[in-house]
Amino acid sequence: MMQNDKLFAGNIPETYERLLVPLLFEPYANDMADRVARIRSRDILEIAAGTGALTRAMADRLPADARIVASDLNPPMLERAQASLANDPRMTWQQADALALPFDAAAFDVVACQFGVMFYPDKVQGHREARRVLRPDGRYVFSAWDSLRHNPIAEAIEDALARMFPDNPTRFMSRTPHGYCEPDKLRADLREAGFQAIEIESIRHNAEAPSVHVVAQAFCQGTPLRGEIEARAPGAVERVTDEVAQALRPKFGDGPVQSTISAYLVTCGQA
What we know:
The protein is α/β, with parallel strands linked by helices. It has helices at about 10-40, 55-60, 75-85, 125-135, 150-165, 170-175, 185-190, 210-220, 225-230, 235-250; strands spanning about 45, 65-70, 90-95, 110-115, 135-145, 195-210, 255-270. The protein contains ten helices and seven strands.
């Protein structure tokens, strides 16, 4: 993973929340929030909360006496999340590095992370930190995207950009969001970190967007892919977005976009 892969700043948080969350993240946020609610926990830590898709879903399902600590490495993303739940007394907001969490050991019943573990520079260390802050009977719940071949929209975006920049193709999508997608690897890393009772569930959803341009804008301007584009075509992100949209039309058509998305939902504990 490259250093800029985890940089969500500038205009990215707003575009991410407005376009990418409804396209990709809301269905999986509901799945994970349902699972967290079934665990019947009081103290919940969310890692890599982003703009709050999972945070909001958990807030809708958890009881009045729950305590939710939402954390993220990037303050601009966390600020965007906080704005949507500013009046919820159950919430605490904390800038935090998943590899060195600023929390006491055995402080939480659940650690939840939606589509954040792929960005950890050291996956096992991130899992170890989750285990450290969990109580002995706590549960670690996270999601990770399946491979590009099972996510046609993301695959088409990367293919389109590879054709535009053949001498220096962008590889953010395959390298990071879709780069931690082998169940055997997930299981091995979790065991190395000390987790047991590991359950890995493959879940598919339908993704919908009003048009290919909305899809292109969501990915090209609402993720760190934007930085890769700007490095190759300074000042031309709008033009590149338009060209990506054109490249998507043969596969997805001129009307509303419908496709499948695939990810893994993982639950594990210390015993």
